[in-house]
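agent> fetching stored inputs for the 4'-deoxy-4'-aminopyridoxal-5'-phosphate docking request
agent> found them:
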Amino acid sequence: AWTGPSKEEVLRLRKAHLNPAIFHHFKKPVMIVDGKMQYLFDETGRRYLDAFAGIVTVSVGHCHPEVNKAVIEQTQRLQHTTTIYLNDQVAEYAKELTDKLPGDLKVAYFVNSGSEANDMAMMMARLYTGAHDIVTLRNAYHGLSEATMGLLGQHTWKYPVPQGFGVHHALNPNPYRGVFGNDGPAYARDMEDLIKAATPGRVAGFIHETIQGVGGAVPLADGYLPAAYKLIRDAGGVCIADEVQTGFGRTGSAYWGFQNQGVIPDIVTMAKGIGNGLPLGAVVTTPEIAAVLAQRLHFNTFGGNPVSMAAGRAVLRVIDQEQLQGNCAQAGGYLLDRLRQLQERHDIIGDVRGKGLMVGVELVKDRQTKEPAVQETATVFERCKDLGLLLGKGGLHGNAFRIKPPMCWTKDDVNFAVAVLDQALSEL
Ligand code: PMP
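agent> prediction call returned; pasting tokens
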């Protein structure tokens, strides 16, 4: 039984001493004190099915025994020295991680978060090309450091500080709401215009998620990436895939999100699920791009620390051993089928989308006008929590559910989640 401080006390401490800009889900917030694989437990011992995985971070399962064992063993042996001494963990992990990537993507940089990884990727692109301009997408989320805030395509998180110098936001190739529907090459033609209009004609690069996560699990229109990559490369730029949410098999059909559109980026950034909850981020690039950064020394105190490395290595092993990519394809395919059936019975469901266990459900007041059903989304979200399901929520209008659970979800978990959603929607 829980012997720590009460929920009320924790809330009081949070209000008194924590960053006032952090937010919590639910009017009556949930306090989570235990986790086991796809389940979370509050201080009363009540179990919830986790559909959001600590914001797509707990990839292989909460407190997965093999990851825990690797972390505990490494913690007991050696926690920290930095890369000024040789250590096996960071070297072996760099090999194991880059083995998972196609083409010439063979050099790894380790950092501690997604924002840091994308900061680094932007700098690499600029140094390698000698150009400054970077193209990003409206509705994008790549972090909240000063540089990555400039990439943001959502006002919700932006501060009115100088940011985004040299950054250009292209039209979002959103198949559901975008002006060109699911016609990827049409959006790319607009990017061609943007490059000509807003840059010197030469760019440093283009950064994208393959399914926009914070933006509401929005996949990029079919055929968009091959066309966009060609334009960017013709303008001298490099292509950066942000795999912070879509990597490590989550989309089921591929290990990396970008593979779903048949492209190979020049730089790949990772965080979140890479460490199953431990602070870990990475940038992987080609030897040619990495060589340009070798003009100066580079250092990151916690980057490559043995404990995070041990976690990262265990995550890679577990994904393979438990065939979690295949499970994402199976459980995710079944989830999408069941949600589309639900859509036939609930007019409020405007769109069901995604791949594998990276799924979005958008609620609208009217299927023709697509007016966001903001209040209804909040009500259903709250009700699902009461019924034992912790969904994610997002999108620019806050009217999309994000279902991105630990990758070990089973068919039973899908059935439970869909039944809960069905009940909550029926009660509206
Ligand atoms: N990229 C993507 C796609 C993300 O979803 C996030 C976090 N939501 C980030 C980058 C930033 O990661 P972090 O919060 O670890 O800085």
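agent> quick read of the result: Residues 51 and 405 are 4 Å apart (CA to CA).
agent> awaiting further instructions
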